[in-house]
Amino acid sequence: LILTAQKDEIDRVAGFTLGADDYVVKPFSPRELVERVKAILRRAGNASSRAADDDKVLRRAGLELDPIRHSVTCNGRPIELTRLEFALLRAFMAEPGRVFSRQELLDRIYADQISVVDRVIDVHVGKLRQKIEATPSQPKLIRTVRGVGYSFTESETA
Predict the structure, then answer these.
(1) Is 30 left (phi over 0), alpha (psi -120 to 50) or beta?
(2) pLDDT at site 157
(3) Which of 30, 72, 105, 154 has the fewest C-beta atoms under 10 angstroms from its C-beta?
């Protein structure tokens, strides 16, 4: 939290660029400051609980994904996945039923790279389906939502 007399936009932008969560300009209300601090602490608490969730073993539709061991099994059988396939499956299994756009998936698995074509997701999803689907040409677990993206279904009967 930056508490300052500097009120110009360039100063606020610089503060956020340096990692500030909030920027309060003098004069300020002490009650507002207290509420802003509480909001920062709530966000920090949510982030730490999400970090704890990141280490949990995910079990869905006969698949088991262990993020600590970086391992996946399908009905007890080990499955070898690339780093990107693993990241995709982890995103899907963490939020079953959610429809992810290609861009959301790109942001999750290629966060550190600037220019990646969104169709690369289609290739990785296709390879992932080859490894986890009973009939990859008729996928039951990772379904395509036309014009939107992809979704993970909890059961193979969907």
Answers:
(1) alpha
(2) 44
(3) 30
Closest to 90 in 3D by CA, of 113, 120, 69: 69
Q: Phi, psi (5° rounding) for residue 39?
A: -65, -40
Q: Please report, in angstroms and rounded to a whole number, the separation of the first and last CA atoms in the chain.
A: 48
Report d(CA 109, CA 91) in Å as an integer.
9
Show the tokens assigned to 54. Answer: 């990141």
Q: Can you say how many angstroms the Cα of residue 6 is from the centroid of all Cα atoms in its chain?
A: 35
pTM value > 0.90 = no
- The torsion angles phi and psi of 40, rounded to 5 degrees, stand at -65, -45
For 60, which DSSP code?
E
74: which strand partners?
A: 63, 77
User: And the tokens for 39?
Assistant: 């909001």
Q: Hey, which residues does 59 pair with through a beta bridge?
A: 64
Strand partners, 24: 3
Residue 81: C-alpha distances to residues 28, 58, 109, 131, 132 (Å): 53, 15, 14, 8, 10
Rounded Cα distance between 99 and 108, Å, is 14
Q: What proportion of the chain, given as a percentage, has pLDDT over 70?
A: 86
